[in-house]
Amino acid sequence: MFPRLTNLGASSFGEDADTFGDTLFEAIEDAPRGHRLLFKQQTVNELRTVMACSDEDIERISWAVLGIDPTAEVEEPPNWGRFPSLRAFWSAVLHTFENDPEVQAGREIDPNA
Fold this sequence. Notes:
Helices cover 52% and strands 0% of the residues. By secondary structure, the protein is an all-alpha fold.
């Protein structure tokens, strides 16, 4: 039901999420990188759907698509960070994708231009 979020759960927010950033916040900020505009737009749509759900449904969706628990206090890596709730986590992810320059422009941007 959420193929883009599942993809992020297998990569940016998977068991090796720390390879995408030194902190959970960095992993979120880096999540849009390396993805094409269509993926980013579809991710925004999926995230808006998730945000319209109840907290109970967000919990079910999160455990189905995430490889990590963004609300857990983890020891490794140090200073990883955590979110007070899954809703807060997904809200931060949505904010990052909505504010991606390509999503804002509505077109792919050539990094070499």
